[in-house]
Amino acid sequence: MDCKSSSTKQRIAEYTLRSFPFSADARSRVLILGSMPGGESLRQQQYYAHPQNLFWHFMGEFFGAGRELSYQDRLEKLKSSGVALWDAARSCLREGSLDNNIKNAQPNDFDCLLRAAPNIHSIFFNGRKAAELFRKLAACKFPQTQRIEQITLPSTSPANASIPYEKKLAAWRTVLEATKRGR
């Protein structure tokens, strides 16, 4: 029984994932919230690291924060443009990279984020799973987020290939528009 218990604990540890610290500061006006970084992002320790993920294409188009910049320069460019990044879940169990495989998710500390970035007026969810996790895990624990506009955008993940690029780009343009409010 101890062997089985030890084996189960080891398997759980192998699939327990942890999100990154938030990228935000007092200049942040909008928050782009993912669910949990995918496998490639976790390997590289960078948000949206999969080369086919459209996130950095869109950020390059809107804010000059494309893949031609170093990762740290992209994050700084976003912060200087009023954009914060984070994930709904602090940790979870998941095999592979698909959001549908997320189990036992624990919320990030949105109270801490909002103290560091008190000017956030909009949350943009990168896909339905991010919105679902936030509403399930965090919205009730951090009621101050209820005063913040919340918009679900089509996921930039390569797994969401059914929506054409142009349609996703048009939807994501609302992020750019939101950064212009509240200056």
UniProtKB/TrEMBL annotation:
Uracil-DNA glycosylase-like domain residues: 21-176
Coiled coil: none
Domain of life the protein comes from: Bacteria
InterPro entries reported in the protein's UniProt record: Hypoxan-DNA_Glyclase, Uracil-DNA_glycosylase-like, Uracil-DNA_glycosylase-like_sf
UniProt-listed NCBIfam families: hypoxanDNAglyco (TIGR04274)
Designated name of the protein: DNA-deoxyinosine glycosylase
Gene source species: Sedimentisphaera salicampi
Taxonomic lineage from the root: Bacteria, Pseudomonadati, Planctomycetota, Phycisphaerae, Sedimentisphaerales
